[in-house]
Amino acid sequence: MKLFKLFSFRGKTNKAPIPKQQFLAQKISRRYCLSAVALFALQSIVALMGALDLVIPDLPSPIPFEYGRAIHLGLADLWPLIGTMGMVYFFITAELNREIYSPSLARWQYWIVLAFSLSIFGTLALKIGNGREFLEGMPIFYVGICLSLALASYNLIRTLLSDKKNITPAAAIMTVGMCFLGILLLPNTITYSNPVADEAIKYWIIHLWEEMALELTSAGFIATFYVVSGLADRSKVEKWLYLEATLAVVGGLYATGHHYYWIGFPAIWLVLGSLVSLVEVIPVGLLVHMTYKGLKEAKVGSRREKLTLWLLLSSIFYHITGASLLGLFMTIPWVNLYMHGTYVTSGHAHLALFGSLGFTVLAGCYYVLSQGSEPTLKSYRGGVLAVLLLNSGLIVMASALLVAGFVETYLWRILDMDFMQVRMLLNPYLMIRALGGIIFMLGDLLLAWSFYKTWKATKPQK
Ligand code: HEM
Ligand code: HEM
């Protein structure tokens, strides 16, 4: 009920003026965001097939489970990346109130990232891959993604440098985030014969992309959105941004240690990983405080901003619960020793990767795609329903995975029961997860449809 009260929108408006002009970069960012949402829709269909395959093994499927899983994990990284590229172009121009350095480079970059991402999914569907979890496509395709990130970084840096006096912290942070994405992916375009090095560098994507680079681009978007929607004034947002950026880089970098416990690294990483992980949680607390105050004091007028907020609030909820609290619990070395790699990890992965990052990217994409139009009451309600279905589906899925993970830990790791015997006992929970997956997929398809209609309604007339 409190949430609805927050949405009654009473109070002062402290909006910053929204630039009236639509820049070319903002038009280009629409195609990134629409593609991200389409890939997200594809992801839940592929994922649901995988979840059903686990509980009904004889289910006819065109793609074997391991390759379907690889496509699912590839999508989990790449649709948020494509959506982020669109968000960054849009919000950087909104922040700076000027065009980017080269819109045509941004157009090329779109086709490159899309072509290489589709090549990864296509070849994996043809059972061509390298077996390196999360980055299972052929290494050459990741070189293509790197190229696209290099073009984006160059374009953004040149944009900032073209008017050095008017660089805002949000614009700078988004640019740094984009540069980090490319830098971290580059060493992952080659394979390593040393398994420790291979595993360690893989986490620069699984951990550092999400908990450092994308944290920076998301912070830039949230800051700009709070300012333009009047939820917080610039000075407050900027204070938060400086702290968020510092902690995301310092905390994110050293907290990689929580992935280095058992892969052949010195024991000092047990201490570093667990202590520094605490740092990662601080900016989330500050964001919650700023959001709460903003919602209490400011007036959010338009349905467009309200729907963006529904998505953003969902993200904040999972940032606190599934990412930070659950993450911290799993980071305790004595807990991790038993729970490492069980279904608890899968529960956390879904709550954190989709719950906190995915919802933020969807919020940004919706804001981008809906620029220039106010949703009708019907389409607003459709959007809210989709958000509720996504939340319900995610909570059912993740709860089932967490219970499965605890049972798995107890029976397998503590009682030392046979792995396959334990796996069979987990079936009921995995069935509930598949049920949650159905609810999630319905929400996903409804949201994608609603975004598509928004995109169509706001398409510039030729
Ligand atoms: C948006 C933020 C986050 C995202 C997207 C995220 C994502 C993930 C993913 C995808 C995995 C699975 C990796 C694998 O299968 O090897 C994972 C594992 C893990 N995460 Fe996070 N995470 C986030 C935040 C956090 C935080 C804040 C902490 C701790 C404070 C944390 C602690 C852990 C730990 C300890 C593991 C390893 C679990 C294991 O040993 O099996 N995560 N995370
Ligand atoms: C219909 C919704 C979804 C279903 C049914 C689903 C199902 C699955 C399945 C079957 C796996 C294989 C391993 C396991 O059994 O846990 C998996 C793993 C994973 N999924 Fe999903 N998924 C869904 C949505 C998503 C979304 C939206 C994301 C992120 C954007 C995501 C990220 C991941 C990650 C990171 C893993 C690896 C987990 C680990 O390291 O253990 N999933 N998912």
Structural summary, described in words:
The radius of gyration is 21 Å and the shape is globular. It is built from 15 helices and no strands. It is an all-alpha fold. It has a single domain, classed as Cytochrome c oxidase-like, subunit I domain (Cytochrome C Oxidase, Chain A, Up-down Bundle), CATH 1.20.210.10. Mean pLDDT is 92; it is low at 1-21. The chain binds protoporphyrin IX containing FE (HEM) (2 copies). Residues 43-44, 47-48, 50-51, 54, 69, 72-73, 76, 345-346, 349-350, 353-354, 358, 437, 440-441 line the site of one protoporphyrin IX containing FE. One protoporphyrin IX containing FE is lined by residues 43-44, 47-48, 50-51, 54, 69, 72-73, 76, 345-346, 349-350, 353-354, 358, 437, 440-441.
Largest sheet, in brief, is: none
Helix content: over 70%
Number of strands: 0
Average pLDDT confidence is: 92
CATH C-level category: Mainly Alpha
Order of helices and strands: HHHHHHHHHHHHHHH
Query: Which structural class do you get from the secondary structure elements?
Result: mainly alpha
User: What's the number of domains?
Assistant: 1
SSE topology sketch:
Layout: H1 2-6, H2 24-55, H3 65-96, H4 103-125, H5 139-161, H6 169-185, H7 195-228, H8 234-255, H9 268-297, H10 303-331, H11 333-339, H12 343-369, H13 377-414, H14 419-425, H15 427-457
The chain binds protoporphyrin IX containing FE (2 copies).
